[in-house]
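Box 3.1. Reading complex inputs
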Amino acid sequence: LGGMWPRAHKPVEPVGTGFFNAYQNYVDSNENIDLYLETTAKEFIVEDGKVVGVIAEGKTGNKITLYANKGVVLATGGFGKNVEMRQEYNTLWANLDESIKSTNHAGATGDGIIMAEAIGAELVQMGNIQLLPMGDPETGSLSGNIEMGVENRIFVNDEGNRFVDEGARRDVMTNALFDQPNAHMWVILDSHDYPTGDEVNNFNESINQLVADGRAFKGETLEELAEQIGVNPENLVKAVEGFNAHVADKSADEFGRTLYQDPINQGPYYAGARVPTVHHTMGGVKINTDAQVINTAGEIIPGLYAAGEVVGGIHGANRLGGNALTDTVVFGRIAGSSAAAAK
Ligand SMILES: Cc1cc2nc3c(=O)[nH]c(=O)nc-3n(C[C@H](O)[C@H](O)[C@H](O)COP(=O)(O)OP(=O)(O)OC[C@H]3O[C@@H](n4cnc5c(N)ncnc54)[C@H](O)[C@@H]3O)c2cc1C
């Protein structure tokens, strides 16, 4: 979503478990690794200007003090779920209060950014917060998303009209969605993407299941689908016919779309509702190429390394899909290697 070409790779196992299983296997096969679950890091222990450990709180409120042999790697993720921080730093959007939900997990609280700032870390590009136009209207989650790729689906607003190049950047599509009635849209697809209806999305959900659960809608004709989702049938048919004409001759449409594969002409047809949702925070602590955290004076903070979404400045104002996981793996390895090599 939001890239010019199909370009991302993902593990075969769904919903991120491909990554977790690999890490869990490594942890299980190395008895020197201790995991502290349900333990919240609170602050760094700094001795003579060097980060040497972390003070944390266990499940029952018990204090846990941990000292590092070589260094501390900060990998606490972004702040997509911290509404206060979103409102404090947002520069790109009119409003990111609690009315805008998030795709993120509950732990995306920005804790690591706050902890690092407290010991002088420089924060960079904090205003760069990414939204997607693909949130579940109830939860903001990407679950329930009916798109199977970006080539075939169109977006229509509550009037049944298209309004944007569905192959555009994430920020362009989300801004266009904010301008629509109720900032609410429908993803429309046909059976090219769902030959059987049992094909699953990234959340392991099939369209048949989503329809049965009332989270997606199905019509044998476009008119029937329009009636189910309460949009003007004439507008929907016109939108689809206009789109199909461009698919046929591969010409740019009125929104500048050039990404096409199949026409939307093979029933049954499907629709799923979506709204803007906070997806990624590109700002965070500043690091150098060895993943060492940099302070506001431009100096290395000895003993402290960072990787992943807690870091700022890697992705600019508009992160490309696929690049965040690459970021975590590449800089995670660099941060770990740098810490292990520290004297
Ligand atoms: C629904 C969804 C789909 C995505 N799909 C893609 C994709 O297809 N490709 C891609 O490249 N990127 C994708 N991203 C983005 C990518 O998943 C994230 O940027 C990435 O997982 C961040 O990894 P991280 O390890 O830095 O942070 P996280 O995965 O957020 O992990 C940070 C961990 O630190 C914990 N933590 C936070 N504070 C504390 C504290 N004080 N003490 C202890 N622990 C703490 C959190 O609970 C969490 O477990 C997606 C994101 C979402 C939400």
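In summary: Residues 10, 40-41, 75-77, 103-104, 107-109, 111-112, 142, 280, 308-310, 321-325, 328 surround flavin-adenine dinucleotide (CB under 6 Å).
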